[in-house]
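Sanity check. The docking grid for 2-acetamido-2-deoxy-beta-D-glucopyranose depends on where the pocket ends up, so I'm generating a full predicted complex first rather than guessing from homology. Inputs follow.
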Amino acid sequence: MSHCSFFFFLFLNTALPISVSATEFVYNRDFNSSNIVLSGNTATIQNSIVTLTNKTFFSIGRAFYPYKIPMKATNFSTPLPFVTSFIFSIAPCKGFLPGHGFAFIFSPTMNLTGATSGNYLGLFNRSDEGNPSNHVFGIEFDIFRNEEFDDINDNHVGVDINSLSSLYSEPAGFWGGRDGEELEELLLGNGENYQVDRVCGFKAKCYYDSSREKEASEAFDY
Ligand SMILES: *[C@@H]1O[C@H](CO)[C@@H](O)[C@H](O)[C@H]1NC(C)=O
Ligand SMILES: *[C@@H]1O[C@H](CO)[C@@H](O)[C@H](O)[C@H]1NC(C)=O
Ligand SMILES: *[C@@H]1O[C@H](CO)[C@@H](O)[C@H](O)[C@H]1NC(C)=O
Ligand SMILES: *[C@@H]1O[C@H](CO)[C@@H](O)[C@H](O)[C@H]1NC(C)=O
Ligand SMILES: *[C@@H]1O[C@H](CO)[C@@H](O)[C@H](O)[C@H]1NC(C)=O
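Predicted complex below; grid placement will be based on this.
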C-alpha cells in the first residue's frame, strides 16, 4: 500500500418492500469518473482506487455514488434496511501529522460547500454542527480524540446523525477470542487495508436500538 492513500471497495444494498426493487451495487476496484462523483480539493481516482486526501493540509475529499438511493418507502416512517461492506486504508504520510479520519455517509446533497476539514471530517462546520436539517447519517472512523464531540479515544468507530458527537461509539476493533466475544482493538490509522465487514442498519438482521429510531428515521426525511 502506497503512502498517503485511502481507498475503498463498496457494496451497498437497500432492501425495499417486495413491490419495489432493491438498490444494489458493487465496485470491484473499478471506480472511475463515470460511476463516482468526486468533490473536495484532493479527491482523485488512480488505478481504479479512490484517494480522498493527500499531503495538503486541511484537505477534504469526497466520493459519492452518483444516483439517489431511496431510503424510505412511501408512507413508511422507518428507513429501509441497508448493508454495506468496504475496504479502506488510512495511510500516514511520513513526516506529517495524520488527518482526523473519514466517514461513510448518507446525505441528501452532494454539495457540502462550507464544511470544515479536520475535526469536522468534511461533513459539517461550527454553525451547522448538530442541526437536524443536515439530514446526514454517517459512520465515522475517527483517529483523533476531540473533546468537543465527547470522543471516547483516538481510534474509534461511531454512529453519527447530523453531528460529530456520536450517538454510539466503540473502540475500533473486531470480534475475536475463542468464541468471538472479545473486542480486539486494531489501529485504524496505521496504513493497513481493513475491510469493514458489515455495516448495517434499520433491522437489517443485526443490532438495532429502537429507542433511537425516531432520530434515525428523521435523518432520512427529505
Ligand atoms: C467505469 O466503470 C463501469 C462499471 O462500474 C464500466 O461499465 C465503465 O465502462 C467504466 N468506464 C470507464 C471509462 O472506464
Ligand atoms: C493534492 O491533490 C491535489 C488535487 O489532485 C493536487 O492539486 C495537489 O498538488 C496535491 N498535493 C500534494 C501535496 O500532492
Ligand atoms: C399515503 O398516505 C396518504 C394519506 O394517508 C394516502 O392518501 C396515500 O394514498 C398513501 N399513498 C400510498 C402510495 O399508499
Ligand atoms: C452549493 O452550496 C453553496 C451554498 O452552501 C452555493 O453557494 C453553491 O452554489 C452550491 N453549489 C451547487 C453546485 O449547487
Ligand atoms: C456551513 O455548512 C453549510 C452546509 O454545507 C453551509 O451552507 C454554510 O454556509 C456553512 N457555514 C459557514 C460559516 O461556512
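Relevant for the grid: Helices lie at 213-219.
Also worth noting: DSSP finds one helix and 14 strands in the chain.
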